[in-house]
């Protein structure tokens, strides 16, 4: 039996919605449909699989990942609070009650 693992990918919202609709239409889970489509493409049996221009999609994907990474980095420019700082905040909050 095949071992099952999870895979997290970033795709455009519109593509995810198309996948969901297709999966529902075929009475499959999103995971089942995605695995089947990936298998077809990797095996070269998907319609037009040989003609797919991967460079355009790859460029869009890399730009999206870079934008997400930049947003994550700017949001986390301050270090997290220490345990001592958290205790101090809790004391302040209790005093206000």
From TrEMBL:
It comes from the Bacteria. One of its GO terms (biological process) is regulation of DNA-templated transcription. Residues 67-78 have a biased composition (Low complexity). InterPro entries: Ribbon_hlx_hlx (IPR010985). Residues 49-88 are annotated as: Disordered. This is Arc-like DNA binding domain-containing protein.
């Amino acid at each position: 039996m095949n071992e099952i693992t999870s895979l997290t990918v970033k795709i455009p919202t519109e593509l995810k919605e198309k996948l969901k609709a297709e999966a529902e239409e075929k009475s499959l889970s999103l995971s089942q449909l995605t695995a089947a489509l990936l298998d077809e493409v990797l095996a070269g049996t998907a319609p037009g699989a040989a003609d797919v221009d991967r460079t355009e999609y790859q460029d869009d994907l890399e730009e999206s990942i870079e934008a997400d990474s930049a947003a994550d980095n700017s949001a986390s420019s301050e270090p997290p609070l220490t345990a001592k700082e958290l205790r101090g905040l809790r004391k302040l909050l209790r005093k206000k009650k």
